[in-house]
């Protein structure tokens, strides 16, 4: 008898939960959350040669339940101490989702103080919190002498966020 009573109570409880879900079918108001943050980054670029990277990055993030996205722009320089090569990078990357890859492009300038080259580098990578790992290939204009720069590279950057601005809007 006790088993039948417990079974009946469990069935009634489960059906009341199902009915409660049907009653609460109103649409919740959507909330737009935007985050704008910027700061400096330091990093290392490895390929045939090793370079130290320093620069600044600005990120705009739209936080949503489904398909959040991030846009970012950066400007920085890198230096190869062994080969005395200076480089400047300006770039943009985009990420859609929480654990997706980042896709972007960098405009680049390299000089060994005898000759210089400009070009671009398509990059893709993975960003987790402030760490960003990217890989790409530097397409440079030809120079008279072969300049000791990385063609294929991988870089690891850490962004020190200096300022973070949040904005909330109800739709």
Describe this entry's structure for a reader.
With about 170 residues, this protein is mostly beta strands. The protein contains one helix and nine strands, in the order αβββββββββ. It has one helix spanning about 1-25; strands at about 30-45, 50-65, 70-80, 85-95, 100-110, 115-130, 130-135, 140, 150-170. An eight-stranded antiparallel barrel has the order 1-2-3-4-5-6-7-9. Strand 2 and strand 3 form a beta hairpin. The model has no long low-confidence stretch (mean pLDDT about 90).
Spatial extent as radius of gyration: 26 Å
Strand order of the largest sheet: 1-2-3-4-5-6-7-9
What's the overall geometry? elongated
Average of the residue pLDDT scores: 89
| Relative helix content | 10-25%
Kindly list the characteristics that best describe this protein:
171 residues, mainly beta, 13% helix, 8-stranded antiparallel β-barrel
Concise overview:
With 171 residues, the protein is mostly beta strands. The chain is built from 1 helix and 9 strands. The mean pLDDT is 89.
